[in-house]
Amino acid sequence: MKLDTTKIEVAARSEKGKVRKENQDRMRGVATPLGQLYILADGMGGHQGGAIAAEMTVRGLQNYIA
Predict the structure, then answer these.
(1) What residues have CB less than 8 Å from 41, skipping those under 6 apart?
(2) pLDDT digit string (tens) for 1-26?
(3) Distance (Å) of CA 29 to CA 39, 48, 58, 63
(4) How far apart, in whole angstroms, are the C-alpha atoms of residue 66 and residue 63?
(5) What is the spatial distance between Cα 55 and Cα 28, in angstroms, rounded to a whole number?
(6) For residue 26, which of 5, 19, 32, 58 is within the disulfide window of CB 3.0 to 4.6 Å?
(7) Residues 6 or more apart from 21 whose CB is under 8 A from it?
(8) DSSP code string of 1-20
(9) Residue pair 43/50 in contact by the 8 Å Cβ criterion
């Protein structure tokens, strides 16, 4: 069996924009038995608790998958 040795570079960028006071987006890369998984949770448009909800989503998925 021949393994694929392709290399991929990944980058992420997120901005709060001109209107918001905080960036509620959350991103994380996770190593899994099947390979690398990249998780993105978009914030809730400035709603209260949006950053917490996005972080809980990313962490929950990471814990479930890994």
Answers:
(1) 25, 26, 27, 53, 54, 55, 57, 58
(2) 677 778 888 888 888 888 888 888 99
(3) 6, 26, 10, 12
(4) 5
(5) 10
(6) 58
(7) 46
(8) -PPP------------TTT-
(9) yes
Which residue type sits at 58?
V
Residue position matching structure tokens 């890369």: 29
Rounded to two decimals, the pTM is 0.72
Phi, psi of 61 (to 5 degrees): -65, -40
pLDDT at 3: 75
Report the alpha-carbon distance of residue 41 to residue 29 in Å, rounded. Answer: 12
Percent of the chain with pLDDT over 70: 97
